[in-house]
Amino acid sequence: MSSTLTIHHLRKSQSERVVWLCEELGIPYNLECHDRVPPAMLAPESIRRLHWSGTAPVIQDGDITLAESGAIFEYILAKYGNGKLVLGPTHPKYADYLLWLHQANGTYMPAVTSVMLGRMKGDDDESPTQKVMQNRANANLQAMEKQLGTSAYLAGDELTAADCMSVFGLTTFRLFIPSDLTEYPNIVAWLQRVGQREAYKRAMQKGEPGLEPMLAAVPQPLAQ
């Protein structure tokens, strides 16, 4: 089925979320994949030409070009979702849904990205800034672990867009900042549940062919 919706996916990046979201919704889309540019492994010029942000994900839908994961999620869910993967204001888990939909990019990813960049420039993990950011990331993981001890997914026993937004930071992002999730068994069990979803498998196969999803507590290192 043809579609006007095109997802521009930067390999090994958060734009995998958008591919997964569309697979879960069962909507048609075109997928354009872009490779990172060594040695800094930044987005290529092909992404930068699409949107002033110069980052992925980017979608195009007719005359519309849109960036930012959260904005893209809202756009796709509102225009194409038909009420799937969202919880409304009257739902008892609505507040949980909103929190976890925004937590990944609002708090967790900025914290772990700051730690990663600090390590890249040689900052000591015991430096004040590194400790603050690592503690912030740990607090998020502890809260997520507690949440997933009460339900199969972040906003109840059914998958929502909040899960689609949150998985990347605990899987593919660990290519850039390895981390051990052994002390978070509920998170690991959640990742395993996600890994069994056919829509997730399709999304990863399309967007990251050859990359084994990093769903284990201690994922295997990539082959050299």
From TrEMBL:
SUPFAM superfamilies: GST C-terminal domain-like, Thioredoxin-like. InterPro entries: Glutathione-S-Trfase_C-like, Glutathione-S-Trfase_C_sf, Glutathione_S-Trfase, Glutathione_S-Trfase_N, GST_C, Thioredoxin-like_sf. Residues 2-84 form the GST N-terminal domain. Gene3D superfamilies: 1.20.1050.10, Glutaredoxin (3.40.30.10). PROSITE patterns: GST_CTER, GST_NTER. Residues 90-213 form the GST C-terminal domain. This is Glutathione S-transferase. It comes from Penicillium olsonii. The lineage of its organism: Eukaryota, Fungi, Dikarya, Ascomycota, Pezizomycotina.
